[in-house]
Every structure is written in C-alpha cells, then in structure tokens.
Design brief:
The relative contact order is 0.23. About 35% of the residues lie in helices and about 15% in strands. A hairpin with an 8-residue loop joins strand 1 and strand 2. Helix 1 crosses helix 4 and helix 2 crosses helix 3. A five-stranded mixed beta sheet has the order 3-2-1-4-5, with helices on both faces. It has a single domain, classed as Nucleotidyltransferase, domain 5 (2-Layer Sandwich). The longest helix is centred in the last third of the chain and has 24 residues. It contains six helices and five strands; from the N terminus they run ββαβααββααα. The protein is an alpha/beta fold. It is globular and about 55 Å long.
C-alpha cells in the first residue's frame, strides 16, 4: 500500500513528469496536493497500470484532490536547455499553477532544483511509494498521451497514437524513412546509430 505523502507538512505537493525519454513531443509534469482521507486501491505509478485504468484514476484524482496542476515544456526548449532541465522546469511550472502554495514538495526521481525556497525531497521510484507522487504521475501521463494523440492527426506516419513519441521500432523506422517533424527533439540521439539523426 502506498503512503499518502513523504513529509509531516500539512500541505505537501507530489510532483512527477512524463515523456522524458521520448524522441518527440513535449515533456509534461503535474503537481498534486491530496487530502488526508484520499485513497484509491488501484493507484500506482502510471507505468504500472493499464491505459483505461489510468484514465479512470485521472478523473478520480481531479475530482478528489485538494489541488492539482499540469504543465508542459516544448521540444524547442528541451533542445535548448536539455531534457533534465526541461523536466524540472515543467515541474516548476506545474507548481506555479497550483491555486495554493505547498509547504513541502515530494519529487519523483533523484534530481530537482529549489522552488520558491520550499523544502523538498527527491524520492527514487516515488511514484510507486507515495500517493501524491503517483497521482502526479497519472495526471502527467494521461495529459501527455492526449496531447500526442492530437499530434498524431498531423503526422500519422510516426505512430504517435500508439508509441506516444517513445523510441519504438516503428517510430525509429519512420524517422529513418521520412525524417523528423517540427515536434521531434533535434538534440536526441538514437542508440543504434550513435548519431544525431536530426542534424540538418
């Protein structure tokens, strides 16, 4: 069973991102503040639950959270400042979007930068250990997936409706055949070639 939150602060926000390892599309992040009575038996890291259940959980979280916010950082910014900094920026933007200011921030992973001088804790695999981080994971993932479904309509040959921009074989094959789009991260490198396929 997941713990509700990391700290003993009354108002703690859980943060997580989605899309950090993708070849295309923005990186999304969410910040979520849950009430003390919050519970859903199926809540878990977004990678551990099915797509229909993620959608169900996202609606439950939005209805029952004290506050939540979702933000994203585009491909051009990712290329300019790198994906780690873009992921942290997306989390900062999500925190900025909360209607209340949290006293403490629980972050999935091992890297973060201070936000408004608030105390924070980086939690390895936190999305599988704490409800508020798991909730942020669900909201970030479902929001990004919905965004990639819309981008798929513009560029259907890359299979973004299925791979959501990740480096699957069909996506890599499409890049090799068709080149990149305005939504690809031009600084990313495919492992099988060790070359930047997006050089012009």
């Amino acid at each position: 069973m997941l713990a509700l939150k990391v700290s003993r602060y009354a108002c703690e926000a859980g943060c997580d991102e989605a899309g950090r390892g993708c070849l295309a599309g923005p990186v999304f992040a969410a910040a979520v503040i849950l009430p003390d009575h919050f519970y859903h038996e199926k809540l878990n890291d977004s990678k551990q639950v099915s797509e229909p259940l993620r959608e169900e959980l996202a609606e439950f979280i939005k209805l029952n959270a004290l506050a939540y916010s979702i933000a994203w950082v585009d491909e051009q910014t990712i290329d300019r400042i790198n994906i780690l900094n873009a992921s942290i920026l997306a989390m900062h933007l999500a925190l900025d979007g909360l209607p209340v200011t949290p006293d403490f921030i629980a972050v999935d992973g091992n890297r973060f930068k201070p936000w408004k001088k608030k105390p924070f804790s980086c939690e390895i695999k936190g999305d599988g250990r704490f409800m508020n981080i798991a909730a942020a994971s669900i909201l970030a993932k479902t929001a990004r997936d919905a965004y990639m479904m819309k981008l798929h309509e513009k560029h259907p040959h890359y299979g973004w409706n299925k791979n959501k921009g990740y480096a699957t074989k069909d996506h890599r094959d499409a890049i090799m055949k068709l080149g990149y789009t305005e939504f690809h991260r031009k600084s990313f490198i495919l492992k099988e070639t060790q070359m930047n396929l997006f050089d012009e």
